[in-house]
Amino acid sequence: MRVRGTPWAARGYILGVSAGAVGCALPALLPGAGTPWDTLALLAALYLVCELPGRRPPSGDFVPVAAGSFFPLLLAAAFLLPPAAAALAAVPGALAGRVERPPVAARRVWRAAQLALTVGAASSAYASLGGPASLGGPGGEAGPGLPYALLPACAAALVFSAVQGALDGGILAAAERVPLRRAWRGLPASVGPHLVHAPAGLMMAVLWRSPYGPLSALVVLLPMYISCWMFAQYHRRHAAHRATIRALVQAVDIKDGYTRGHSERVGRASELIACELGMGERRTEALRFAGILHDVGKLGVPTRVLRKEGPLTPQERRLIELHPEYGHEIVRGIEFLDEARAAILHHHERLDGSGYPYGLSGDAIPEFARVVAVADAFDAMTSTRSYRPGRPVPAAVAELERCAGSQFDPRMVRALVRALDRYGWSAATAVTSDETDTRPPRQRSGPGPLPPAAARPAGRWGRRR
């Protein structure tokens, strides 16, 4: 097995889990074990078939279900087979599944061992609570019925989730030196999805044990696989969206180190306002993206202007004020941003019509832009920069309230105030990352304290805004 590049602690952990998996599955191979080889072979083959598409790189809009993600079939194996045989059912598919990063062999062995232990433990929990008897015999003999199998099935799903999460946390701690407490932090979040998978696996097991046999169970296999595929596709698309946002923000931070971290905080403040306004989940997410990307147009502003050590000339200020239009052009083709594009273009408009780039006023300014304008000014005032200290939150709120009605939408200001009263704005969130700026102090020094962003007249937002 190729394990070069794998830390010794991770190698030992993988070997230990593999030994445990062998011990769990070994009883099924002993003479006289009574292992139902026909059921085991069919379930293992089905799981292998479900995982094989994942070995091919995604093309076009097709996104295969990732290795180890088709848990309803694994839970069905836990419900239909003895613990040792259930552990074996997961091995072929896990070994054949797609691995995206090296070392490939070590990762495949780890995945097979982890799933073998997980399915074996779930099957043990199911059997200990009388689950197999509730489904009836393999020949179609009647049992107490489906309702009596729900409790053992849910217990098995909980054990499945706990064992898998614990093993995942262990490999993170061993391979990446993540503290155990942090590595296991996501364990509770995995319980819900596994409990949802349990009824699907139980339905397949019930049909498998029915007089119609395995063929009837296969009828529900395709819809279950399609639902898992759609779920995986949604999460991959969402991950691609986040990666796009992250790449754009990192590019801005590299170009303009003075505002590093500002974009994320504006996104957070925009999200708080959206929640207070009662926006739906989709609009709230789009508004968070708008806040994060509101300054992406700085990529089109000359670096010498962004990093100039002193007051800007009128011509340089006009270049800075073009960044909303540059930003709108940059994100024009990114469809998932939706309303966020308008916020990027208009977040420097003012309610009284004295803003830029188009001098819109009142309700002509898009709602998202009015939210981001408040979030942007609030973070600009509360952030500590190398050339001035940040204002306390109460002082920044007072300034926003003073400018409400002329510069800012009063409804958005009130929403931010309510959110701050409810959730607060911690120092860790509000402090800028000037401390992490690697440039020498001489280069980082600014022109001295500047008036807060909210109090500056239109068109004179200082060096960075």
From TrEMBL:
UniProt xrefs under Gene3D superfamilies: Hypothetical protein af1432
Record flagged with keyword Membrane: yes
SMART domains: HDc
Keyword Lipoprotein: no
Region (Disordered): 430-465
HD-GYP domain location: 237-432
HD domain segment(s): 259-381
Residue spans of biased composition, Low complexity class: 455-465
Keywords from the named record: Membrane, Transmembrane, Transmembrane helix
Classification via InterPro entries: Cyclic_di-GMP/3'3'-cGAMP_PDE, HD/PDEase_dom, HD_domain, HD_GYP_dom
Alphabetized Pfam families for the sequence: HD_5
Residues annotated as transmembrane: 12-30, 70-97, 109-129, 149-175, 187-208, 214-232
Record-linked PANTHER family: CYCLIC DI-GMP PHOSPHODIESTERASE TM_0186-RELATED (PTHR45228), LIPOPROTEIN (PTHR45228:SF4)
Name under which the protein is recorded: HD-GYP domain-containing protein
Organism of provenance: Streptomyces nitrosporeus
